[in-house]
Structure formats: C-alpha cells, structure tokens
Specification:
The chain has eight helices and six strands, in the order βββββαβααααααα. The chain is an alpha+beta fold. Strands 2, 3, 4 and 5 form a four-stranded antiparallel beta sheet that branches. The termini are far apart.
C-alpha cells in the first residue's frame, strides 16, 4: 500500500496487531504491505505503533512525503553504526554478507552458511546452546559472534540490536520504565550467554581460538 501520487484516504482507522511474534499494521480490515507486495511486519511494538500513527495522521489524502519513519537520518545512522561491524565480520570470517533494507534480509550464499556452520560446529554442544540463547536475545548471529570474539561489548551489541527502536523512541518518546527495563534485561541475557559460551569452551580458549574453515 505505497503510492507514487497522493491518494485519497480510503480507511477510517489504523491499528497495530500482534501476530506470530511480529506486529502488523491494519488500515481498517486491510493489512499494510511493502512496495514489493509483502506483508509489512516489525518486531518492535513502539515502531509498529509509530507507523500506525503516521498512517492515522494522514488527513484527506495519503502523502508519503510526510511519513518519516524511513527517513534519511535513520538510514545514515544504520550505515554509520552497522557497516563497520559488517565489514569486520566479513573480513574476520572470510564471508560475503551485504546490508539490506528489505524486511526479509539479504541473500546469504551457501558458501557463507557453510563457513559459519563449520565454525559453530567447532564449539562444544554446551557452547552451541549458549549461542542459541544469545542469538535469540539480540536476533543476530553477527552481533553474537562479535561479542564472543570481544570485538564489541555486550552494551554495544544490544544498542545495535535496538537501533531502529531507539531512533523511533527518540522521536515518539519512551514508555516510562519499560524501555529501560527491556534494555537491561537484554544486556543481562546476552552477558550470561556470552559468559556461558566462554566457560563452556574454556579449554579451547587457553590459546586464541582459530577459525575452522
């Protein structure tokens, strides 16, 4: 539901609905879609509410130029914060992963998957459980491995995992206590997971762990 010309508003109300672990935006009974025709979904409730609010703020006509949730500032911030991490990760593991603005994420080659799979298989089963817990926490294997390799701190990893949400709450405001508690909880969970991985791999970390390819 994206338009090149200003279209007359065809809906009465907007809403953000939780479904299968993600949030969808509805315009009356219609579900919002991306320019490629895919269902628009986000994992952040504040972001979903913000998007719904922007659509609700449209008066008689829909003007996308007045919707700023994917504005240049956010894109610049994402490139500034994430690109150095992605560059380091690709060099460290000798893989190719490109950034993407699509909801579905970038294409990952079988070769890259194979390299990362072999690396994870070099850890003990207990450590792999730690990886699973960490990835579930920050929704990123890249951030998890960066923490395990001590390239970035847990605090930095959590910040990067919440970058878009933090950007939006900077515009729309925070729910008192809720966002701070969520951030602290993620940091505690990721810290525990990374520590568990290191402890479970203590014998292999006596010397610097070598990448297995």
């Amino acid at each position: 539901m994206y338009f090149s010309l200003a279209l007359k508003r065809f809906y009465r109300k907007t809403n953000a609905l939780y479904s299968d672990g993600k949030y969808e935006i509805t315009l009356d009974q219609r579900k919002l879609k991306t320019p490629h025709g895919n269902l628009f979904v986000v994992e952040s409730e504040p972001l979903a509410l913000a998007v719904a609010a922007e659509w609700d703020a449209q008066k008689t006509h829909i003007k996308q130029s007045s919707m700023h949730l994917e504005e240049t500032e956010l894109c610049k911030l994402q490139a500034q914060e994430w690109q150095p991490i992605l560059d380091w990760f690709c060099e460290r593991y000798n893989v190719q992963i490109e950034s993407s603005r699509e909801i579905t994420g970038p294409h990952i080659s079988q070769e890259t998957k194979s390299v990362l799979r072999k690396h994870l298989q070099s850890y003990s089963l207990w450590a792999v459980h730690g990886f699973s817990f960490a990835v579930e926490t920050v929704k990123s294997l890249i951030l998890t491995l960066c923490c395990v390799d001590r390239h970035i701190s847990v605090e930095k990893a959590v910040l990067l995992s919440r970058l878009e949400e933090e950007f939006q709450t900077g515009h729309w405001g925070r729910v008192e206590w809720a966002h701070e508690l969520s951030q602290q909880d993620l940091q505690a969970r990721l810290s525990a997971a990374v520590l568990f991985i290191h402890i479970s791999s203590s014998s292999t970390f006596v010397k610097s762990k070598q990448l297995v390819i």
